[in-house]
Amino acid sequence: MDTAEEMTGTPTYRLSGSPMGGLVMGTWGFFIGFAAVALYGPAAKFFQSQMHLSGLALGLLVAAPQLTGSLLRIPFGAWVDRAGGRLPMLSLLALSLVGMWGLVFVLFTAKSLSASAYPIVLIFGFLSGCGVASFSVGIPQVSYWFLQKRQGTALGTYGGLGNLAPGLFTLILPYAIGAWGLGGSYFAWFGFLLAGTAIYALFTRDAYVFQLRRQGFDEEASARIAREKGQELFPKKAVWQAIITAAEDTRTWGLVALYFVSFGGFLALTVWFPVYWANAFHLDIKTAGILGGLGFSLLAAIVRVFGGMLAERIGGERTAVIAFFGVLGGALILTFVHAFYPALGGELLIAVGMGIGNAAVFKMVPKYVPNAVGGAAGLVGGLGATGGFILPPFLGAVVDALGGQGYAGGFFAYVVLAVMAIGISIYFGVLDARRK
Q1: pLDDT of res. 14
Q2: 10-residue averages of pLDDT along the chain (436 residues)
């Protein structure tokens, strides 16, 4: 802890924390909150059988955490510039805890779930999903601790490790259900989230400028002292103006569309692949969890790191074209080939494409919206992620319409989205060539 007392009449200030601590705790908060992406997906077969859900209702249930997790990204990300990351992150985790406790209460008090329980389970899914918005809080929280030259490494570590959470929970939850039952498994998850939130609350420190503000220093003095202590990046005053400026630039909406396909698509398939493998191929939930968690979610998260490296070398535009051709190829296989091993190959291909695409899109944000990078990042991240809520109900509706064949037929939506994304990526490539 740093302490200092300047000339008489100047308040004493106390500073604590370090860049490494900021990275570790920011990543930890993101990890425990973002796990809610997989809240219902791995257990979908249980909820479907007990509540007798249609495909559309099931798709809406597994997608529920994605709605709040997407829409809250923009306001909570902006809040960080006023309050630092600790309070916004704790607020999101607290809301998620309320949702998890409500779900646990329902599962333990109801002997068996009926269709009448669906609305309340859905509502608790929305609440639990608040933690998914932790991504947009952790990004600036970590950024303010690091020098600009170290941002890439710090944020790459943050995103890579935090993004592993849905895949890991997709793997673990089916085994937990087998050992402890549905209620016991979610109670264990609640306990993990509660302990994780307590750890975050105890050990997280905001960047120096926010600590100084809370100790009564004005903006100028806070920035001066923080700069002397090594802080380089500082929050901008006109946060909402940056969002408005970004929204007025049509290129922002092109990037939103690309991220809708890559990251929104990733969120949707993270919860849908366990449903797909369990119902289309009649696999047990443990096997379905392994295929969905390891074969898709974890793979896409890991590949995202390499996607960033590729985008650095050949540019975000070319990387995006390559990525979305991968998504297109995987979607075509999943749509038209109904055998297990080709379908597995399609899943792996679409995972690689989405992982690379996620990195490529954010490589292009500062390039095409340089006057409002923060605002553009908020819109791209927040609105693009809504794909995770919109797509699963659509996939479920296709199953309702086509029966068992709908599990494959629904992937045609990704064929259409991939073609659109390829066209937009080529457009950005043309813009880039004209700039040169």
Answers
A1: 86
A2: 51 84 94 95 90 93 93 87 90 97 92 86 96 89 80 76 91 93 94 97 91 85 84 74 84 94 94 94 92 92 84 88 96 94 96 92 81 75 91 94 90 96 94 78
C-alpha closest to that of 37 among 134, 155, 179, 136: 134
Please tell me the predicted confidence (pLDDT) of residue 6.
44
Can you give the pLDDT at residue 373? 64
What topology is assigned to 18-204 in CATH? Growth Hormone; Chain: A; (1.20.1250)
For the chain, the structural domain boundaries read 18-204, 238-436
User: pTM for the whole thing?
Assistant: 0.88
pLDDT of residue 75: 87
Secondary structure of the chain in HEC code, one letter for each residue: CEEECCCCCCCCEEECCCHHHHHHHHHHHHHHHHHHHHCCCCCHHHHHHHHCCCHHHHHHHHHHHHHHHHHCHHHHHHHHHHHCCHHHHHHHHHHHHHHHHHHHHHHHHCCCCCHHHHHHHHHHHHHHHHHHHHHHHHHHHHHCCCCHHHHHHHHHHHHHHHCHHHHHHHHHHHHHHHHHHHHHHHHHHHHHHHHHHHHHHHHCCCCHHHHHHHCCCCHHHHHHHHHHCCCCCCCCCCHHHHHHHHHCCHHHHHHHHHHHHHHHHHHHHHHHHHHHHHHHCCCCHHHHHHHHHHHHHHHHHHHHHHHHHHHHHHCHHHHHHHHHHHHHHHHHHHHHCCCHHHHHHHHHHHHHHHHHHHHHHHHHHHHHCHHHHHHHHHHHHHHHCCHHHHHHHHHHHHHHHHHHHHHHHCCHHHHHHHHHHHHHHHHHHHHHHHHC
CATH entry 1.20.1250.20 includes domain 238-436? yes
**Euclidean distance between CA atoms 295 and 402, whole angstroms:** 26
d(CA 176, CA 336): 34
